[in-house]
């Protein structure tokens, strides 16, 4: 399923429920999580590289990052948000999430 982001807007990136694959429900609240936005050719979008996603205090493995409104995006184009979670000895997770850029009206 594709997600969307709005052009010329600050956009939230969320990772919910990060847990230990060997112990489901053991939430990982101290991982290093980043997101990088890439275009269809696989090039990182300037200003959207290795954006830190911070742990949301009091949550169960939820992380939140913000893509700045200043990044250069093309309306209706497809991008890939690459999310990496490094939990040290517990392991690393990696997700590729397709996103479509929309223009916000009214």
Q: What is the topology?
A:
Blueprint: E1 3-6, E2 11-15, E3 19-20, E4 23-27, E5 32-38, E6 51-55, E7 63-67, E8 78-86, E9 92-102
Q: What can you tell me about this protein's structure?
A:
- The chain has 106 residues and is mainly β.
- It has one domain (3-102): Immunoglobulin-like.
- Helix content is 0%, strand content 50%.
- The strands form two sheets. A seven-stranded mixed beta sheet has the order 1-9-8-5-6-7-2, with no helix packed on it. It has a two-stranded antiparallel ribbon with strand order 3-4.
- The relative contact order is 0.34.
Could you name the key traits of this structure?
106 residues, mainly beta, Immunoglobulin-like, 7-stranded mixed sheet, two-stranded antiparallel ribbon, 0% helix, 50% strand
In short:
By secondary structure, the chain is an all-beta fold. It is built from no helices and nine strands.
Which regions contain 5 or more consecutive residues with pLDDT less than 50? none
Structural class: mainly beta
- How is the CATH topology named? Immunoglobulin-like
Helices, by number, come to 0
Largest sheet, described in full? 7 strands, mixed
Distance between the termini: 26 Å
Could you spell the SSE succession in H and E letters? Answer: EEEEEEEEE
Per DSSP, what share of the residues sits in E-state strands of 2 or more residues?
A: over 45%
Q: How many domains make up the coordinates?
A: 1
């Amino acid at each position: 399923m594709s997600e969307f982001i709005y052009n010329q807007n600050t956009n939230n990136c969320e990772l919910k429920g990060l847990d230990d694959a060997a112990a489901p429900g053991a939430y990982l609240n101290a991982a290093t999580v980043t997101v990088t936005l890439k275009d269809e050719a696989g090039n990182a979008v300037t200003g959207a590289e290795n954006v830190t996603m911070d742990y949301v205090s009091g949550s169960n493995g939820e992380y939140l990052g913000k893509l700045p409104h200043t990044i250069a995006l093309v309306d209706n184009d497809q991008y890939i948000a690459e999310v990496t979670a490094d939990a040290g000895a517990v392991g690393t997770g990696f997700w590729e999430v397709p996103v479509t850029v929309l223009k916000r009206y009214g």
